[in-house]
Amino acid sequence: MLGGSKRQKLKHGKYEELENILLEWFQQARSLNYPINGGVITEKAMEIAARLNLTEFSGSTGWLDRFRSRHGIVYRQISGETESVNNDDIASWKNNVLPSLLRDYTPNDIYNADDFELFFKLMSDKSFVFKNETCHGGKLSKERLTVLVCTNSTGTHKLKLVVIGKRRSPHCFKNVRTFPCEYLAQSCAWMTGTLFMNWIQ
Protein backbone atom coordinates (compact mmCIF):
# COMPACT_ATOMS: atom_id res chain seq x y z
CA MET A 1 0.00 0.00 0.00
CA LEU A 2 1.28 3.47 -0.84
CA GLY A 3 1.98 5.92 1.96
CA GLY A 4 0.33 9.36 2.05
CA SER A 5 3.39 11.22 0.75
CA LYS A 6 3.78 8.75 -2.12
CA ARG A 7 0.11 9.12 -3.11
CA GLN A 8 0.46 12.91 -2.95
CA LYS A 9 3.48 12.76 -5.27
CA LEU A 10 1.62 10.59 -7.77
CA LYS A 11 -1.38 12.92 -7.66
CA HIS A 12 0.52 16.14 -8.23
CA GLY A 13 3.61 14.92 -10.08
CA LYS A 14 7.24 15.75 -9.51
CA TYR A 15 6.99 19.22 -11.07
CA GLU A 16 3.91 20.58 -9.31
CA GLU A 17 4.74 24.30 -9.71
CA LEU A 18 5.55 23.88 -13.39
CA GLU A 19 2.34 21.95 -14.01
CA ASN A 20 0.22 24.52 -12.16
CA ILE A 21 1.58 27.30 -14.37
CA LEU A 22 1.19 25.14 -17.47
CA LEU A 23 -2.39 24.21 -16.58
CA GLU A 24 -3.32 27.88 -16.10
CA TRP A 25 -1.85 28.68 -19.53
CA PHE A 26 -3.72 25.72 -21.06
CA GLN A 27 -7.04 26.87 -19.59
CA GLN A 28 -6.53 30.40 -20.93
CA ALA A 29 -5.55 29.15 -24.39
CA ARG A 30 -8.55 26.81 -24.63
CA SER A 31 -10.91 29.57 -23.45
CA LEU A 32 -9.84 31.38 -26.63
CA ASN A 33 -10.38 28.19 -28.69
CA TYR A 34 -6.71 27.90 -29.63
CA PRO A 35 -5.90 24.41 -30.99
CA ILE A 36 -3.21 22.77 -28.84
CA ASN A 37 -1.32 19.58 -29.64
CA GLY A 38 1.25 17.66 -27.63
CA GLY A 39 4.16 19.52 -29.19
CA VAL A 40 2.74 22.88 -28.13
CA ILE A 41 2.21 21.66 -24.55
CA THR A 42 5.73 20.23 -24.35
CA GLU A 43 7.33 23.36 -25.77
CA LYS A 44 5.44 25.57 -23.31
CA ALA A 45 6.46 23.24 -20.46
CA MET A 46 10.13 23.51 -21.49
CA GLU A 47 9.81 27.30 -21.55
CA ILE A 48 8.34 27.30 -18.02
CA ALA A 49 11.01 24.84 -16.82
CA ALA A 50 13.73 27.19 -18.06
CA ARG A 51 12.17 30.08 -16.13
CA LEU A 52 12.01 27.94 -12.98
CA ASN A 53 15.58 26.68 -13.54
CA LEU A 54 14.43 23.04 -13.70
CA THR A 55 17.41 21.86 -15.71
CA GLU A 56 16.58 18.16 -15.28
CA PHE A 57 13.10 18.50 -16.82
CA SER A 58 13.04 16.91 -20.30
CA GLY A 59 9.37 17.12 -21.32
CA SER A 60 9.30 13.44 -22.25
CA THR A 61 6.38 11.61 -23.81
CA GLY A 62 5.89 9.79 -20.51
CA TRP A 63 5.66 13.06 -18.59
CA LEU A 64 3.16 14.44 -21.14
CA ASP A 65 0.96 11.34 -20.81
CA ARG A 66 1.00 11.60 -17.01
CA PHE A 67 0.28 15.34 -17.08
CA ARG A 68 -2.71 14.76 -19.35
CA SER A 69 -3.96 11.92 -17.15
CA ARG A 70 -3.62 13.95 -13.95
CA HIS A 71 -5.62 16.85 -15.35
CA GLY A 72 -8.14 15.04 -17.53
CA ILE A 73 -6.79 16.38 -20.83
CA VAL A 74 -7.73 14.38 -23.93
CA TYR A 75 -6.97 14.79 -27.64
CA ARG A 76 -10.13 15.31 -29.71
CA GLN A 77 -11.20 16.34 -33.17
CA ILE A 78 -12.12 20.04 -33.28
CA SER A 79 -15.82 20.13 -34.13
CA GLY A 80 -16.46 23.17 -36.26
CA GLU A 81 -16.52 26.84 -35.38
CA THR A 82 -17.99 28.22 -32.17
CA GLU A 83 -20.06 31.31 -31.54
CA SER A 84 -16.88 33.16 -30.54
CA VAL A 85 -16.07 33.51 -34.24
CA ASN A 86 -17.66 36.73 -35.46
CA ASN A 87 -18.33 36.61 -39.20
CA ASP A 88 -18.55 40.41 -39.38
CA ASP A 89 -15.07 40.71 -37.85
CA ILE A 90 -13.72 38.17 -40.33
CA ALA A 91 -15.24 40.01 -43.30
CA SER A 92 -13.94 43.34 -42.02
CA TRP A 93 -10.41 41.96 -41.59
CA LYS A 94 -10.43 40.40 -45.07
CA ASN A 95 -11.72 43.59 -46.69
CA ASN A 96 -9.82 46.23 -44.72
CA VAL A 97 -6.68 44.69 -43.23
CA LEU A 98 -5.62 41.80 -45.47
CA PRO A 99 -5.27 43.86 -48.69
CA SER A 100 -2.78 46.20 -47.01
CA LEU A 101 -0.72 43.22 -45.83
CA LEU A 102 -0.61 41.71 -49.32
CA ARG A 103 -0.12 44.95 -51.23
CA ASP A 104 3.65 44.62 -51.59
CA TYR A 105 3.64 40.93 -52.57
CA THR A 106 2.83 39.16 -55.82
CA PRO A 107 0.73 35.95 -55.69
CA ASN A 108 3.92 33.98 -56.41
CA ASP A 109 5.40 35.31 -53.17
CA ILE A 110 2.45 34.44 -50.91
CA TYR A 111 2.74 31.01 -49.29
CA ASN A 112 0.47 28.79 -47.24
CA ALA A 113 1.69 25.96 -45.00
CA ASP A 114 -0.20 23.41 -42.93
CA ASP A 115 0.63 20.19 -41.12
CA PHE A 116 -1.26 16.96 -40.52
CA GLU A 117 -0.75 13.71 -38.65
CA LEU A 118 -0.02 10.53 -40.61
CA PHE A 119 -0.93 7.37 -38.69
CA PHE A 120 0.98 5.13 -41.07
CA LYS A 121 0.19 1.84 -39.30
CA LEU A 122 -3.48 2.55 -38.65
CA MET A 123 -5.89 0.09 -40.21
CA SER A 124 -9.21 1.17 -41.71
CA ASP A 125 -12.09 1.69 -39.28
CA LYS A 126 -14.47 -0.01 -41.73
CA SER A 127 -14.56 -3.54 -43.15
CA PHE A 128 -16.69 -5.88 -45.22
CA VAL A 129 -18.25 -8.51 -42.93
CA PHE A 130 -20.94 -11.18 -43.14
CA LYS A 131 -24.45 -9.84 -42.57
CA ASN A 132 -24.89 -11.49 -39.19
CA GLU A 133 -21.30 -10.95 -38.05
CA THR A 134 -20.48 -8.54 -35.25
CA CYS A 135 -17.76 -6.23 -36.51
CA HIS A 136 -14.87 -5.99 -34.08
CA GLY A 137 -11.52 -4.36 -34.72
CA GLY A 138 -8.09 -4.93 -33.25
CA LYS A 139 -6.00 -2.57 -31.18
CA LEU A 140 -5.43 0.73 -32.97
CA SER A 141 -1.83 1.71 -33.67
CA LYS A 142 -0.85 5.16 -32.42
CA GLU A 143 2.46 5.33 -34.31
CA ARG A 144 2.50 8.43 -36.43
CA LEU A 145 4.48 11.09 -38.24
CA THR A 146 3.70 14.76 -38.71
CA VAL A 147 3.85 16.06 -42.28
CA LEU A 148 4.11 19.73 -43.27
CA VAL A 149 3.06 20.83 -46.76
CA CYS A 150 3.69 24.28 -48.24
CA THR A 151 3.10 25.98 -51.59
CA ASN A 152 2.67 29.47 -52.98
CA SER A 153 -0.79 30.80 -53.87
CA THR A 154 -0.37 30.14 -57.61
CA GLY A 155 0.83 26.58 -57.10
CA THR A 156 3.98 27.24 -59.13
CA HIS A 157 6.35 26.58 -56.21
CA LYS A 158 5.67 23.52 -54.05
CA LEU A 159 8.24 23.05 -51.31
CA LYS A 160 9.58 19.66 -50.31
CA LEU A 161 7.42 17.85 -47.79
CA VAL A 162 8.69 18.10 -44.23
CA VAL A 163 8.30 14.85 -42.26
CA ILE A 164 8.72 14.84 -38.47
CA GLY A 165 9.43 11.62 -36.58
CA LYS A 166 10.49 10.78 -33.03
CA ARG A 167 13.98 9.44 -33.78
CA ARG A 168 16.82 11.36 -35.36
CA SER A 169 18.22 8.29 -37.14
CA PRO A 170 15.62 5.48 -37.41
CA HIS A 171 16.89 2.01 -38.33
CA CYS A 172 15.07 2.19 -41.66
CA PHE A 173 17.35 5.09 -42.68
CA LYS A 174 20.42 2.84 -42.68
CA ASN A 175 22.30 3.08 -46.00
CA VAL A 176 19.79 5.67 -47.29
CA ARG A 177 21.64 8.77 -48.46
CA THR A 178 18.98 10.86 -50.17
CA PHE A 179 15.36 11.59 -49.31
CA PRO A 180 12.50 13.03 -51.40
CA CYS A 181 11.56 15.12 -48.36
CA GLU A 182 13.11 16.98 -45.44
CA TYR A 183 13.19 14.88 -42.26
CA LEU A 184 13.19 16.41 -38.77
CA ALA A 185 13.14 14.76 -35.34
CA GLN A 186 11.17 15.74 -32.24
CA SER A 187 10.59 13.59 -29.15
CA CYS A 188 6.81 13.46 -29.66
CA ALA A 189 6.88 13.76 -33.48
CA TRP A 190 5.06 17.09 -33.27
CA MET A 191 5.65 20.30 -35.20
CA THR A 192 6.76 22.86 -32.60
CA GLY A 193 7.26 26.59 -32.86
CA THR A 194 11.03 26.13 -32.67
CA LEU A 195 11.09 23.56 -35.49
CA PHE A 196 8.84 25.75 -37.62
CA MET A 197 10.97 28.87 -37.15
CA ASN A 198 14.16 26.93 -37.94
CA TRP A 199 12.50 25.59 -41.10
CA ILE A 200 11.33 29.08 -42.13
CA GLN A 201 14.82 30.49 -41.71
TrEMBL record:
Transmembrane segments: none
Keywords assigned by UniProt, alphabetized: DNA-binding
GO molecular function per UniProt: DNA binding
Subcellular location: Nucleus
Domain of life of the native organism: Eukaryota
Entry GO terms, CC: nucleus
Predominant subcellular localization, coarse grouping: nucleus
Pfam families assigned: DDE_1, HTH_Tnp_Tc5
Residue ranges of every copy of the HTH CENPB-type domain listed in the record: 6-77
PROSITE patterns with a match to the protein in the record: HTH_CENPB
Protein name, as recorded: Tigger transposable element-derived protein 4
Natural source organism: Sipha flava
